Protein 1
Amino acid sequence: MRASRFFIHTAKEAPAEAELVSHRLMLRAGFVRKAAAGIYSWLPCGWRVARKIAEIVREEMDAAGCAEIFMPAVQPAELWRESGRWSVYGAELLRFSDRHGREFCMGPTHEEIVSDILRAAVSGHRQLPVNLYQIQTKFRDEIRPRFGVMRSREFIMKDAYSFDICEKGMRESYETMRRAYCRIFDRVGLKYRMVAADSGAIGGDTSHEFVVLADSGEEEILYDKNGNYAANAEHVPCAANDNGGDGNSRPEPREEMKKIQTPGITTIAALHEFLGGKTPPARSIKTMIARGSNGACALLLAGDRSLNIAKAARQPEIGAGAELASAEEARELIGAGFGSLGPVNMQLPVVADYSLQKSADMVCGANEDGYHYVGVNFGRDCPMPRFADLRAAQSGDAVPGGEGKLSSCRGIEVGHIFQLGDKYSKAMNVCAEMPEGGARPVLMGCYGIGVTRIVAAAIEQAHDERGMIFPDAIAPFAAVVIPIAPKKSGEETRAAAEKTYGELRAAGIDVLLDDRELRPGVMFAEADLLGIPHRIVISPRGLQNNEAEYKHRAADSPENIPAKTAAETITKKIRSNLAAGAGGQISRACQTS
RNA sequence: CGGGGUAUAGCGCAGCUUGGUAGCGCGCCUGCUUCGGGAGCAGGAGGUCGUGAGUUCAAAUCUCGCUACCCCGACCA
């Protein structure tokens, strides 16, 4: 591609609205242009990156035995009513009507449509298994779109759906996808981890997330440095024998329970200070009121720990749809506000986190505004609560089922694979005649990759003050040839640049020739901003010694190489980089559970 | 959805307090010079000041409504 005929519009300044690095750089580099909140046009440079990612995904999905289809972005309400999701999905589903008043939505995902396709086409087990995928625009009406294409409302996603007749088959399909995903992210060239996303109601590996490592990521990952464990922090179980804090130190009560006046004290930190620092937050009882389908319940945690609401939902006292009660509800149920609650004389059922199991002489609210109890002990001053795993795991907790402590890092979710079982096939009657006779719902899996989000994640992961730094496989161009050729005396330089450019093209390298005859500084700045990994500069000065200058985007300084064989040299580098990503050997990032 | 903020040329901003018919930088166009890290000089194009109403002789500026966008919050008692 010749820069003179391409569409490169960069800016020195980014619009004020962008605060995330990737968003700023994408706007400065002219990757995208916003059309509305969370809705973007993809301009040529950005689109090249997105396309390259999509193409890698496509190749690996095809190689894994999936068949590409293309489903409608606009979907009829009737299918969503059939699956039950029309009423469940909420405001994130963008709904509208056509001229006849028929209801539709913009697809946030495609289980309904693909199920409808399957039930029409498949009737017997001999036609399965099948795995269909598409690369499509999705729409989710996010409450608050932000970070550019990282959390946009309209985005491009690869979604695949597998259909099997038995659980073993579903697991095999899942495993095939897991491996394909590892190959995809290896090839894309990013640092990532596959992490457990659900410890499993069904048991086993039912869901994995693929997370690109970046400090600005919204997901927290907890992992074992020895590589035996990695999971989304939200899904890390805390074991019964891991009590955290200083909870192991005082098994026997030493103090009598006393009620003390604590005017205006409603936080653990304020209480700690009020008590003169004597009772650490770990021995303060944090009492929260949660309710779900089964009722309301008081949850107790060590004061230095946080609740994981999903874990609360697993308690029989609470049940599905668990939410924390509002301050008004708490007052109605208990008669005291937040910060003054506690297990002593608590009318609601009580469940305590393991973090309190070995604590004695604790502090808690007195269920009366302005009062706390000190010297509280379970079993003596209030009934011994049932202990359960309620808290959010954090760095320093024990590795589940293993040795040592968890470490923490941040990442961006770019892929997620699930075993769905018969949830949709049952609701939508996707059945197949089984080998043993009789029709049964088929078992599904679904597998997503955020194509456009990967663009932002890649930039988030690798950039410097001058701009983006792309891996070879997804850079807008793998290489750029820059002639430094003054209008009057640059004939020879231009010719040499053309020659190198031609040779690179002939070798199949995706190369940009910057033939715009701009000042060198401008061309360098743009090449750096765009993150083009390999740069060859041809100058009159170099040509006198038969040399070209080569610099990798991430390198500190350039090196001189023979001009004659410059194209060959770069071709070799790029080919070896691409081969390393597609090496067949799945990277270590994928070997954690 | 609650709170806060912003809206002036393609982008970044000033002007608004104290009303008088719009300006700066980047970018764009023309010319000359320059040519290894976002050039210099000279000339030029480009704006219904988000939108609707109101106040006024006069509104970017004051008042009210609307819309869009951004930020914070919407689980830690």
Protein 2
Amino acid sequence: MAFTQSMAVQSERYKDSHLEVDFSHSAAALDSRRMVLTRKEYELLALLVQNAGEIIPREALLWRVWGYSNQIRTRTLDVHIRRLRKKLGDYSSQYIETIFGIGYRFQPFRAPRAFQDFTAVA
Amino acid sequence: MAFTQSMAVQSERYKDSHLEVDFSHSAAALDSRRMVLTRKEYELLALLVQNAGEIIPREALLWRVWGYSNQIRTRTLDVHIRRLRKKLGDYSSQYIETIFGIGYRFQPFRAPRAFQDFTAVA
DNA sequence: ACGGAGTTGTAAAAGTTTTGTAAAAAGCGG
DNA sequence: CCGCTTTTTACAAAACTTTTACAACTCCGT
């Protein structure tokens, strides 16, 4: 069977050397150990991970995860970020970056090396 | 995400180190002792067991066992889960897991957990 | 370097929703 | 009716989310 690269379809899964997220199962694992996340925690993580390397403004997060329109004053995002970071343990500072005055950014562990050459496992 | 049973492998019986379910005879045994189950209790257990490792949403259980459509407010599922758990005795916490806000999941006894079985959303 | 305004971090409290449970009520076949 | 099963009721308990209150930090102008 030929390997076919799906088109613009977003990947069903994220994986780096420590974190793994299975979007189709709404599941995440850190160092192969299941992460126990609440729904909001998962949604937040998924959104960040799906946009790895990109800054996501607070407004966007609040809209996509909470459905909040602008101009709503709430600290729930911060609290959820904190809980996520806690569950990411020692890696949290590697993974979730605060962009002051704008939002947050998820960074793949140890910087992404654009399309790693898959030396096909022969 | 829609719950689908199409992926479930249909087998005539289930067996692990403590629990055995014979679907063709609608019978179950715990540690080789026959479980005395009512009809609904059996149907609920069977549905869970046939989808071992998978989360079954409340809605799906209510539909498949009770024929209830959505939007019906009832606690009968919870009550049946409780009775089942009671009859599973000490193993109940091993077997029937509550997935908060979603539904329930039956886990084979002490099964080595594969990543796919993990569900972050609690 | 300093200071202030605004932003983010954090712990704990408060609020909301979901699930667990016992007991009563209702349903059902014999 | 009777006995068993199922469902509802009414709270209790647990899980989850949001707010609160204040500490800590960042940016930026002076």
Protein 3
Amino acid sequence: MAKWITIEQMSHHVGEEVELRGWVYLRTDKGRLQFIRLRDGTGFAQVVVFKKNLDPEAFNAARHVTQESSVIVRGIVRQDERAPGIPGGYELDARDFQIVQLAEEYPIQPKEHGVDFLLDHRHLWLRTPRQWAIMRVRAEVIRAISDWLDDHGFLRVDTPILTPSAAEGTTTLFETNYHDRPAYLAQTGQLYNEANIFAFGKVYCFGPTFRAEKSKTRRHLQEFWMVEPEIAWCTLEDLLEIEEQFVSYIVQRVLERRANELRVLERDTSSLEKVEPPFPRISYDEAVEMINRAAAQGVRVPPKDEPLPPIEWGDDFGAPHETYIAAQFEKPVFVHHFPTEAKAFYMEPEPDRPEVCRSADLLAPEGYGEIIGGSERISDPEKLVEALKRHNLPLEPYKWYIDLRRYGSVPHSGFGLGVERTVAWICGLHHVRETIAFPRVLGRLYP
RNA sequence: UCCACCGUAGCUCAAUUGGCAGAGCAGCCGGCUGUUAACCGGCUGGUUCCUGGUUCGAGUCCAGGCGGUGGAGCCA
């Protein structure tokens, strides 16, 4: 009996007779010679089927097998430079070929397709090499996130998805029915994280979050994954050091362990190799100056080569502003001390200058935009009540949140990193919809 | 919500001024022992998004609708 191995393991079995189980993704019919491209989830490999090496029935099966049919192939592993695949360089010289199920005419071909068609066929699109590579990078990003946090004293404490009230804006909430009372899908676990740090010191939550934004851009999903670390006894300055260590670790880990996948994606990794601490830091004030200086000089920004619009102090950045700022640096860049008005209610105002708050966003290079938003949180109960009132938020739902400041309040900070934007940046993708298996984009709930 | 663009075969796209709806790929049949999205020959394949209008005649022009894409705002 030939041993069943995976495509990933082929290089360790050269000269041996083995069995592969997988799906046909391409076939080249040369008459008495068939080239079958097989994938099995671990990789992509070529099976070479010479008529003289098989029973007539088995050869006939190989000759008529359709794309995406499930098959079991027995043969001898051979090293050959001409063999395509991932990782490639090894092929199977077939001795037997069995079809488990002959697939019907398959809609996705190894060629260009439109976005609408691909999203409607996401359940099948996932089988293609490019999507395979992206999902494997995503899994590595997630493992790197957990490993780094777990190894640095953070305790994972999961926060609820069904919540009674808004954490931030109310217009972007998905409402659901909680036994005849309204409940909302979580936009963030942060407020609960803040409760958890007083019990556990350093914590993080990691899960899906939901934003009912009417956003139709390459950076937005209705449902996305966010990791949110929160740290007691931590100032904004301490927080930025943690963030740059964390992000650098994630990037270097993917470069090290998912090189094959990045090659499939044709990612130029030279800019990723530079991602290590420290990251540049500029204040919002400096950023506004940089933007307005550039706008006055008529600087244009990708992707549409439009003139960079000037900005007024107090406004939040638009996409071209983020793109311009990020393009001035080789590494991710922190922009800190945003106007208090433009940010969420819980951010700590700078004591000597309350019009700005102790917040910082991290902008990824190459136009991938904001991948982290973070801040020091208000630690004084009275200042927090004031801030809630200033934002016209009701006090009652936040009673427990205010309580946290009444029983042993300490300076504390936290941030949220968006998994999809991080994966899009590392993979060099144009749109975050490819970074999650079943994306929830505006107007789409199938499959 | 707003702005721009798009909707023709299973897929990617053509169709001149309003004048017989076409090609490549996929599928099926045949040929080929090193293909890299093979190649060569043949066959099959249509509610031109929907509704209405103009016209001798509409894929093409007009109106409304539906669906999609890109972007803005907002955000990770």
